[in-house]
UniProtKB/TrEMBL annotation:
Lineage: superkingdom: Bacteria
Keywords recorded for this protein, A-Z: Hydrolase
PANTHER family named in the record: AB HYDROLASE SUPERFAMILY PROTEIN YCLE (PTHR43798:SF31), MONOACYLGLYCEROL LIPASE (PTHR43798)
Any one GO cellular component localisation term in the record: membrane
InterPro entries: AB_hydrolase_1, AB_hydrolase_fold, AB_hydrolase_sf
An example Gene Ontology molecular-function term: hydrolase activity
Range of residues in the leader sequence: none
Gene3D superfamilies: alpha/beta hydrolase (3.40.50.1820)
Domain annotation AB hydrolase-1: ranges: 56-283
Protein name: AB hydrolase-1 domain-containing protein
Claim: Amino-acid biosynthesis is one of the keywords in the record: no
């Protein structure tokens, strides 16, 4: 049985914890010093270990990395209706209350970015700031067109010219009518290289990722990540840092980053060159610089 942390003085102690919120057990890990920052996992299956550590954030904040419902070491219902975006937003809010924090930072990558932006729309009054890292904001036709343009461009890059079968398999999977039935490992094995400016990183990075196929199925059925947040983003008034890898095909800087930036008046957009979907891995120095400059400009140092 997981040992719940219930002593208020220990809730933000450095290290691993478990919390009971919204009828589920949430696994979280605390590192760093300063105001509290909540960082959810992507929501559709991976453990939050995948984004740890984000040392540039830990230097300024008490970072609380947590596994979203049914991912990693967190529990969750076996019911697809409980994996809608509002369920994930409610868990962030419940964790804020559980930790006894009036105002927090939130940060998230990809599907985690989708969550924290939605949280900002719903709970702007409880925020100090938002960091959205290669976040998905609108899975619409503009995004689909830009994604395929970027994928087509990759065909002529050295890695894919040397490995034409890899490119062909990836395209076949992406266009397959049966792709929703595939496991996370099958998808990553076939398309993982597309997530990186340097595709050869995919095997090592994704090889360490823990993921839950049940959660993927539930979130697909629930439509998680399908909501277009753009019309509601102007509700966010807190400082927001948008970081996007210039070569990201999944959450690209044009259909996602730029439109997000235009919708949030208080936002700063930073493009990380020679980086795909995971800039803290491919370009850690540039990622750190972007975070340090933003914290400095917001007088959080």
């Amino acid at each position: 049985m997981k040992h719940l942390t219930t002593n208020p003085s220990l809730l933000l102690q450095q290290g691993e914890h478990f919390a009971e919120i919204n009828g589920i057990t949430i696994h979280y890990y605390v590192s760093g010093q300063g105001p509290v920052m909540l960082i959810p996992s992507s929501g559709w299956g991976p453990s939050v270990n995948f984004v740890m550590p984000l040392t540039a954030l830990e230097r300024h904040c008490t970072t609380v990395y947590f596994d979203t419902r049914h991912s990693g070491q967190s529990t969750g219902p076996d019911d697809a209706t409980q994996y809608k975006l509002e369920n994930f937003v409610a868990d962030i809010e419940a964790l804020r209350v559980y930790l006894g924090q009036d105002k927090i930072f939130v940060a998230g990558h990809s599907g985690g970015g989708h969550q924290v932006l939605a949280y900002g729309i719903a709970h702007n009054e409880h925020l100090l700031g938002i960091i959205a890292i290669d976040a998905i904001v609108a899975a619409d036709g503009v995004r689909a067109e830009e994604m395929m343009r970027r994928v087509a461009k990759k065909q002529h890059e050295p890695f894919y010219l040397a490995n034409p079968a890899y490119y062909e398999r990836a395209i076949a999977l992406m266009t397959s009518p049966n792709r929703a039935a595939l496991t996370i490992k099958e998808v990553i094995d076939a398309t993982g290289g597309f997530y990186f400016y340097r595709p050869e990183l995919a095997e090592a990075v994704f090889g360490n990722m823990e993921a839950n196929d049940d959660v993927l199925k539930y979130t697909q059925q629930a439509g998680f990540q399908s909501k277009n947040l753009l019309p509601e983003l102007p509700r966010i008034s807190v400082p927001t840092l948008i970081i996007v890898g210039e070569d990201d095909f999944m959450c690209d800087p044009i259909s996602q980053g730029q439109r997000m930036h235009e919708a949030i008046a208080s936002s700063t957009l930073v493009l990380i060159q020679e980086s795909g979907h995971m800039p803290w891995i491919e370009q850690p120095a540039a990622f750190d610089t972007a975070c340090e400059q933003w914290f400095t400009e917001q007088h959080y140092v």
